[in-house]
Design goal:
Number of domains: 1
Number of helices: 9
Shape: globular
Structural class: alpha/beta
Number of strands: 7
Largest sheet: 5 strands, parallel
Length: 229
């Protein structure tokens, strides 16, 4: 069994799904601390005529201290949903797979998500199925594993009966290899080279949300990600 992990980020980039393709299961870390400062839990980039289309989900932070991801609530004091959908409709009006993709995104946005986690999970699951990812998608909370750092990852691997853990080289410095070896778990660091594919609006931009890939390439997106080596 090969396992990888990732936080349940907002509209993930293609590398997120590349890791999933290299594993039998991806465990989403939905029971850890919400990152402080700006990060990919609440925002991501797509493309616009002017360059980049940033989509940001406002959340309540002030006075809440350190929060765990399941407790983070969406702030509805601004019309962020309308702004997101308006931007997507305008900037992707001529995208080849617009009609195959945007109605599903609109339906997700129409749901009454109070928590950021619920929104992110719905979007991840949509992209997962639209890209036809066959790996298992599991929540940390579903398997009842808690902890921090390498100890958490080792516990996840043991619970999932995994003998291999997949990660990107960028996180190697944060891991403790001895703990994996002591538990008979191999570390597999995979390199991801962001794919180039047909995009709208001029020069190619790397590492946008996988939603951009899906809008432009549809069912070919899986093959494009799989060959990003």
């Amino acid at each position: 069994m090969i396992v990888t992990t990732h936080q349940p980020i907002f509209l993930p980039w293609p590398g997120f799904f590349y890791k999933a393709l290299r594993a039998d299961a991806m465990v989403l870390l939905d029971d850890v601390q919400f990152p402080l400062g700006r990060g990919w839990m609440t925002r991501n980039r797509l493309k616009s005529e002017q360059g980049e289309l940033w989509l940001t989900v406002p959340v309540w932070k002030k006075g809440r201290g350190k929060q765990i991801i399941p407790n983070v609530e969406i702030c509805e004091e601004v019309s962020w949903r309308d702004k997101h959908l308006r931007g997507l409709r305008q900037q992707y009006a001529n995208a080849p797979y617009r009609e195959d993709t945007l109605p599903a995104i609109e339906a997700i946005y129409a749901r009454d998500h109070a928590r950021l986690l619920d929104l992110n999970l719905d979007l991840i699951r949509f992209l997962w199925h639209a890209l036809d990812i066959k790996s298992q998608l599991v929540l940390q909370s579903e398997i009842g594993v808690t902890g921090q750092g390498t100890d958490l990852l080792v516990s996840i691997c043991k619970t999932m009966n995994a003998d291999t853990y997949v990660a990107f080289p960028i996180v190697e410095k944060y891991l403790e290899p001895d703990k994996f070896r002591a538990n008979g778990i191999k570390l597999d660091f995979v390199r991801f080279h962001p794919p180039v594919y047909p995009q709208l609006w001029g020069d190619f931009r790397y590492n946008l949300s996988a939603l951009d890939l899906l809008l432009n390439c549809g069912p070919k997106g899986l093959d494009i990600i799989a060959h990003s080596r």
